[in-house]
Amino acid sequence: MPAPRTVLLTGAAGGLGTLMRGLLPAYGHELRLFDMTLIEGEPGAIIAELADKEALREAVRGVDAIVHLAGIALEAPFEKVLRANIEGTYNLYEAAREEGVRRIVFASSNHAVGFTPRPREGDALIPVDTPRRPDTHYGLSKGFGEDLAQFYWDRHGIETVSVRIGACLMEPSDVRMLSVWLSPGDAARLFHAALTAEGVGHTLVYGSSANTRLWWDLSSARALGYEPQDDSEQFADKLVAEQGELDPDDRAHAYLGGHFVTDPPVWPR
């Protein structure tokens, strides 16, 4: 499909949103920004919450696609996650339906499958159809978002690429992130592929770079045209020297979700 010219970027003031504001325009996307927080240097941004249905309708009106990054980005009390990540994502899809937007890129998370045991040496990579095992209210909300995306494709014909993002930072900060790191450059490549690939229906992909220590299968992302160019291994020597290798007998190292699986701290399971 032709590259969308106008893309609504929700969560534009957040960490990932800030990175994408700088990178996605190079792919030919004109960004319309939405966030609940003022964005310095962006007087045209729409400042509202996802609960504001009229503001969402205005934000969505006339765009070619949506990259939905807004919401609570880490664990929080369920009531807050419910309002922002569950009700807020529903409100966004309804606005898209009402305004005729046909493509959404949804920022899901590896925490939707956080209680999945991580691969050991010699194991196969984890496929995208592995059963969901959320490790937090946050991960639970991302599972809801994936199901919502499937429902809106089946019922209303709105296409979505749900991206189970690992950790999108300039560089990984711990040894676990060596396996799930998504460089900002690769994130932009993946989002661009998700915005422009043909016939995605509802496609679920993992979002990481081509890491030497990769845990999950990137084939569905590559099928969209995504070609990751970065590898976290350049940071491995420093991190391993500081922190040591992952210990499979440590609960926080045994599952995809890392330390998010340790509350409540019940080990072994």
Report the structural category.
alpha/beta
Q: Flag low-confidence runs.
A: 265-269
What oligomeric arrangement do these chains adopt? single chain
Main sheet overview: 7 strands, parallel
Question: What is the helix/strand order?
Answer: EHEEHEHEHEHHEHHH
Q: Give the N-to-C terminal Cα separation.
A: 47 Å
Beta-strand content estimate: 5-15%
Going by CATH, the architecture would be 3-Layer(aba) Sandwich
CATH T-level fold name: Rossmann fold
Helix content: 25-40%
CATH class: Alpha Beta
| Fourth CATH level, the homologous superfamily | NAD(P)-binding Rossmann-like Domain
Strand order of the largest sheet: 3-2-1-4-5-6-7
So how many helices?
9
Q: What's the Cα radius of gyration?
A: 18 Å
Number of strands: 7
Structural description of this entry:
By secondary structure, the protein is of the alpha/beta class. It has one domain: 3-Layer(aba) Sandwich (Rossmann fold). Helices cover 34% and strands 14% of the residues. It has a 7-stranded parallel β-sheet with strand order 3-2-1-4-5-6-7, sandwiched between helices. Strand 4, helix 3 and strand 5 form a beta-alpha-beta unit. Helix 1 packs across helix 6. It is globular, with a radius of gyration of 18 Å. It starts with 5 loop residues before the first strand and ends in a 15-residue tail after the last helix.
